[in-house]
Amino acid sequence: MKIYGLLLTLFIVVSCSGDNQKNLENLDKVYGKCDNPHRQLSDIQYTICKDKERAAGGEPFDIETSIQDLLGNLNTNPTYQNATNKYLWNGAIETTKSYPLKIADNQGGYIETDWIYSADNPNERCVIKIQVLSDELVSTGAKVKLLCQEKISENWITQQTDLSNEEKILTLKVLENAAQSVNSF
Amino acid sequence: MKKLAYLVSAISAAAFSTAHADISVSGSASAAYTAAGGNTSVLHGGAVSFGLSTTSDSGMTFAAGAGITRDTDAGDSAAGATGLSSLTITTGGVSIAMGYDIGLPDGVGVVGEVVTVADHNSRSVSNTAAVGDDEGAGISLTTPVGGASLTLTYLYDLDADTVTVGDLDGAAETGTGASVSSSIAGGTLTAAYNRVSSASSVVNNETGISFAYPAGGGTLTVGYTSTSGDTASNNGTAFGAKYAMSLEGTAITLGYQSYDVNSTSGNSTDIVVSRALGGGASVFAEMRTTNGTVTASAAADGTDDTSTMAIGTSVSF
Description:
Chain A is of the alpha+beta class. In chain A, 39% of the residues lie in helices and 19% in strands.
């Protein structure tokens, strides 16, 4: 009887649900992922989690300070915080791992591959540009841009073809790889 | 469109065909020197975790896990394989875990015990506020409700984690729990209630609450726990506090936990310092001191102590 009540509660609660992953990530920042009361971790997962937490070097609480700050003195050295979400970054790296990278700036959140040539048509080449726009794992956190050129009379000319559909597919792939990056932690 | 077909398909083929499934591997290993008075030990241990997941065409994610572990704080225990006893389904905003190793959301108010290795050979507080067995066969649901996170758990067989089979209709021991976390007054408040019904209709309850608040460059967490029920030796209250901060890349955590249970009282004070070395490696030092009514010495060589420490290194993969 109790399990039926729990299942009924489950269906009711589902209708009121929102972004569970975002809530869990916010609680990770407060308690640490290992000690988040809303995560079910096995003993093995907890052990590995705590070792990763140590290796992160204080990042679980995401707070930087110094003795001078504690004493209330002014800190004249600016602190730069990475503005890109690490899962989106990992997702972008995973998506472009088969191609040589020209630019991979994890501070600015920008990836650009080198020119990619087609074996079937050496007179065509493309480049993939991925910009990580957010420090949170959101569906609008990555933007993909494709640039393709065609060789005409020894000159590379940018194609005017609408590539929005291909860009959308690549964006979804980045988000999928980012989600898998979360699960692998 | 055909011109780009090879490029996009090479990247996205996995997304839209058969490669929704994924196996991830992570692990860690550690070594630590521990001391309890004159009783010193060296502990080696580690674990490997396999994460198995797949996504259905509708976007529903199914996940399971398995692992190999060698206990890091139990001397020379043999390695053991565990896992593959639960399944987690994530869909929309809801995560549902079901299996033999589902845990109740208890211990929410016990925030002051922060060491992971320095409890080796430590004479711990004798009576702690707890409901007893808190893990078994059951189902747990986590979902956001408004801006809060809600977890509901029902264990239909508390013995399943030891007998490896879940008795759905006739288990002697069952458990129910609920916890909710929400942002309040600049901090995060978590409250939980758990009820365990053991053999012979013995019922024990636990209510816990904790509040985490950013303070002085770190995070201060305070917690309170109250237990009551038919097992008198578990009835009482507990208070804990923890302060965690990062100082120039070094993580420092201080914890204090006190118990007043069954007319006895005791407390522990923990300190943990760790620093990352890069590449997944870190070094750490821990210390625990216990006072009040503590357990008698139980080590094989007859030497536990109320003051213990550990220094070690760990690496995660």
